[in-house]
Amino acid sequence: MKHLHQRIRDDIEAKIMSGEWSPGHRIPFEHELMAEYGCSRMTVNKVLSTLAANGLITRRRRAGTVVAEPSNQQAVLQIQDFALEAARAGIEYRFKLLHRSVEPIDAAAAQRTGLPAGTKMLCVSTLHVMDDVPQAFEQRLINLATVPEADTESFKDDPPGTWLLRRVPWTDAEHIVRAVSADGTMAKRLHIETGAACLVLERRTWQAGAFVTEARITYPGDRHHLVGRFSPVA
Amino acid sequence: MKHLHQRIRDDIEAKIMSGEWSPGHRIPFEHELMAEYGCSRMTVNKVLSTLAANGLITRRRRAGTVVAEPSNQQAVLQIQDFALEAARAGIEYRFKLLHRSVEPIDAAAAQRTGLPAGTKMLCVSTLHVMDDVPQAFEQRLINLATVPEADTESFKDDPPGTWLLRRVPWTDAEHIVRAVSADGTMAKRLHIETGAACLVLERRTWQAGAFVTEARITYPGDRHHLVGRFSPVA
DNA sequence: TCCGCGATTATGTATAGACATTATCGCGAA
DNA sequence: TTCGCGATAATGTCTATACATAATCGCGGA
């Protein structure tokens, strides 16, 4: 039996992540959750306070608690779904699957993901194109143990990122942002000069402790940047 | 009278930030803090739990609570203070003031900050050096209307970022991360090749709606990256 | 109709106590 | 001396309650 605290939290997170509760949706009052889980208000309060501190929900006295509008961390998230972003901006978007294979991971990848070396992962490389201009090159590892249905997915309609996001909402993510110079191959793929600065975003995501996917996305430095809004923790 | 919670927190943070409690230092037990502040254990516990969730301290049952070892997990937030980071990591740090002037801002800067064009700002350029290797070049605008005492500050002891952080804690910040190629001047300053990829972090901060400062920090791409951990979960 | 003010309500902070969990310490036995 | 195990001490979780604070609602008066 997990701790109640964690269960309440998981439930709320799942509802938000799955989109069942979209931004602006009113979350049950503390006394309602109290009744639902049969616990004291302090327990509910601590969960909601923490979620609020993490920016997932917004609380206001008397008015109640609602799912937060995507504002701060969302910038990092948004960029991951090209299809959605392009649709919102009214831009023609397409993607090209450049590579697809199932391979055991090497020692370095095992270290990064916390999985045993040799674990089989689906490896996919995708080029994202908008208005005929390459916008990003994506190399992705997908954990077949967590997402077995990926094995038979063709990624014909949706790129891996979009496809995954709909199936496996993440609960935990680690990001690394680097600046690197494009080598010849990358330059060709992205239609930039060899040696041009690129922004590389690495993201590893977990769901309830289980590793889901690792994405390494390379953006041409002259066409992209990341934007984020942060507030100090209360 | 501020809330007790906040007071305890401020006290502990101050001791850690000032270096009085260095990494590994054992923090008073909950029952000791209880006695010191004359409050219940829950109050102390919530403060310490929050600090632990923020990575400032490490807690272990029976063993107690200690100041956390500096990790790179919070680079996005901590990178703002070189002096503090260097002190925590035990690295020799110094900085060089390369430029200092008071100038009216141009139209572009006015747009970014939301201030009227022509507003007078203090412009400072700083080079951050650790162990004799340049680590970052910082260009900063400081709003003299919000921080008038900056006008007479020499920045002899502390670099502008550290100095500001102690005087004007920000409540709201906007970050932009880019990858750019170093031009000749920048390459010389950072001891890298011309054209090498650099990570550029732009941060604009506000305090209660009033613009405080804009920093544009350029890191050599081969020596730095940003790491962030985002989770709905703490 | 519109405005102001008090009642209501949801969250914010804090208390005192209880039991669970876990790592360490120290004692006693092999 | 070393190993194992129980006592101990610290944090982790939770309860039931109390009062504070802030924002909204709604009623009554102008």
UniProtKB/TrEMBL annotation, chains A, B:
Give the record's GO biological process terms.
Answer: L-histidine metabolic process; negative regulation of DNA-templated transcription
Which SUPFAM superfamilies does the UniProt entry name for this protein?
Chorismate lyase-like, Winged helix' DNA-binding domain
> What PROSITE patterns does the database record attribute to this sequence?
HTH_GNTR
Q: Name one Pfam family in it.
A: UTRA
Q: Keyword set for this entry?
A: DNA-binding, Transcription, Transcription regulation
- The segment(s) forming the HTH gntR-type domain are 2-70
The record's GO molecular-function terms, alphabetically, read: DNA binding; DNA-binding transcription factor activity
NCBIfam families (alphabetical): his_ut_repres
Q: What is this protein called?
A: Histidine utilization repressor
